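Data card: per-record layout.
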Amino acid sequence: MKVYFYKMKRQLQLLLSLTILIFWSSCRKDFEFSPSNGTLQFSKDTVYLDTVFTNIGSSTYNLKVYNKSNKDIVIPSVRLSQGQNSMYRLNVDGITGSGPQQGKEFENIELLAKDSMYIFIETTIDIETLAASATQFLYTDAIEFDSGENEQKVELVTLVKDAVFIYPNKDETTGVIETLTFDVDGDGTEDETTIQGRFLTDTELTFTNEKPYVIYGYAAVNNGHTLTIDAGARVHFHANSGLLVTGGASLEVNGLPSIDQDLLEGEVIFEGDRLEPGFEDVPGQWQTIWLFNGSTGNTINHATIRNGTIGVLSDGNLDDPTKLSITNSQIYNSSNFGILGRGTSINGENIVVNNCGQTSFAGTYGGAYNFVHSTFANYWNNSFRQFPAVLLNNFIVDQDNATFTNPLNEANFTNCIIYGSENIEMVLDEDSSDSFNFKFTNCLIKFDDFNGTFTGLNYDFNNVALYENTIFNLDPDFLDAQNNKLNIPEGSPADNKGIIFGNLSTDILNTTRGAIPDIGAYESVVFEEEED
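The structure for this 532-residue chain is written out next.
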């Protein structure tokens, strides 16, 4: 009897609680939405979607909308001013909208009191629909909230650039993308590869500065042809893309000194195709400039190469001094190597390389390397790196763990800075079964081997035949190494420590070198102190 009474009591309590809850809910005004009255607030009054190339989708941007009133409201309409014709598209708190095209118009959007919501904004713009002859165009629209006297607007702005697009063909039936076929191993026969891309046509073998170039896959230069890139040209690569110069072909990059070091108007710039500020310093956005075995007469002057996987990859032609000449150029933010040589020949002067995931310069599998007035720094800060700023070796190890050697005929560094954020920024990895010739003259090198790990003749820093007038472990006092500003101040340990050497009488900024030149790519300057 007591058990029965207890159960009845619990059921009555539950029924009473449920009745009170229903009565209370029916009296609540919280979910009675009132029409908006034009008092919405926004995180921005204008959303700038930065610069995009024509017909390439933008990143996703967001706008936050606030209802700071004490009432739950309903916004009768949220729409783009140009309606269905707009080249923007929206997503309002996960809703894709109504109308023939989604993302243009929305109805009856509810927003609770003291709450907010996100609007996500994207665009893909065809510049040909805006102006037939324009190379860039400012495209604008607005998001309209409500109408009449309650209408509020947030402006949308995007700079659209026209471009020359180079991409491999695609079989629409099979979906197979064109791959390159050329003489890979130098035996005189064509080899099929898995490298997606196509050869440039005769009319594409000069890149001008009239429009940017956007490359998908590898743009390749065929045997017997030369790709010439004019001063001021801009070359952008999509993900997993690059430039490939095959056997018998050449690359000529003809940049000029720039007056404005922010605009770099005379430089030839190689970078990714994402123009938003968030991608400005992101490594590994594209692959590499690949100078294949057999390519010859390659020259790069006044170029900026940034945000690739390997800035420049040079293969083969060990005994060809014209394989690659690179001058007055800077390479930044490579996810692997800045310059990678593999049994090749490279001559460089006024070179700056910094912020590489592995090595700024690696001369591997032997070769012939001559660098003058160059700064090889590495202040990679994404994670710990295992490699130094400069690496030399004369061997490779294949997948079967077999070792193959190649002579390091020469590796001469004169008036160069080799420095970075690790203790050891130079490694000389020799296989004694083949030649290994090198010399550092009037250089500044970071090599703080406090554990005594590196021994032997190659690290005998008192041997003037290998290290002549070379300074160790004195900080060159770069202006801002993390942000790729490798200028040195007056009074730096590299100031007035060089010798007259090389083919150029000016530094990388076209400043005349002094009677006693400085070490590195830059002549010293007086750093201006920043105001508080």
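Known properties of this structure: Residues 330 and 352 are 5 Å apart (CA to CA). Helices lie at 2-27.

See the next section for split statistics.
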